[in-house]
Amino acid sequence: MNNKMRKGKTGVFNFAIALSMLAVSAVHSGQVTLNVQDQNGTPVNGFRWLMQEDTTYAVTPDVSTGDMLSLGFHRSNHPPAINSITGAGLSGYSDTAQAVVADVEDNKSYYISVLPFSGHSLSGDSVTIDATGTDQQTVTVTVQQQPIPTAQISFYLFHDHYPVNGNPDLPQEINPPVGNAGHVDWSGFSLFLEEPAGKYGQNGGQVIQDAFANPLGTTYDRTCDINGNPDLNPLTNFVCMTAGAPVVAVLGDGTMHPDQDGFLTVKNLAPGKYGTIMIPPTGSNWQQITTIEGTKVIDAWVKANEPPVFVEFGLPGPHVFVGFTKASSEYVVGQAGGFPPLQPPLPGEQTANISGKVT
């Protein structure tokens, strides 16, 4: 009898503990109210959402730490967040412009991804649930209304000789006018544009089409405003659309070449990261000097509505500049490329030879 009572009491006690733990877990669960709007602040009805744990190290700006990241790298895995009661992953959808995510585990940081049902881009935000204070959070995610503006990449080619350093030293390295000594006709060079995601495990390769699936170099009728009404102002107009497709002015052939002075702009690209290679004419013996990471590929990161110039350090300039030169053995008076032979030393001057291995 006593054993039965003891067992019964034990069962009730264990059940009570389980209920108390469940209650504590529920009390310390957070909640996120998710609002979705477009770039104008207009609510966007209908979207899917997904919460993931932010497993990277928390960084406080202007506060140093003794734990160096070289011995503790950021994690690359961000698992789905789980419901603190059921253990199920936190994801779902809403037919309105708002979703309430309950029972979120406390004392963690999260990413929230949002994908509207139609007409808008993917977007997201981050949020931290803190059991000691802000466990009730409101997050507003802004999505961009489609169509997304295209991007562009500007190029500048130059004869690198004043000095040979991979950078355009202006004005000394500006291309002389046609007919003048040292002029280079850069129009014979060709652009090889690549989408480099293939190097990271995804499909990639050469890009020969623009964002509208037409060959590179295609130009479009830009005489409309955003609503399709006539607009001849180049600062405010857009590409005219017919049945959802842009109106083609001149169809390109997929190849791109700089002008005689080395300038080139590739327009109507999808935003992203591109690898660019400028290929000299066959047999011209131009050698590329400019490099970023030791190869001929120069990267270009361009966003939606990218301006025609790039600003990183100093004054605005092209997204990509590439310098070329020729061997001294190809020097011809009055022509570009190569360097004149060294003059003999003057009386009283001494000369020396330097030899070694370039590694």
Automatic annotation (TrEMBL):
Annotated signal peptide: 1-29
Assigned keywords, A-Z: Signal
Top-level taxonomic group: Bacteria
Protein name in UniProt: SD-repeat containing protein B domain-containing protein
Biased composition (Polar residues): 350-359
Disordered: region residues: 340-359
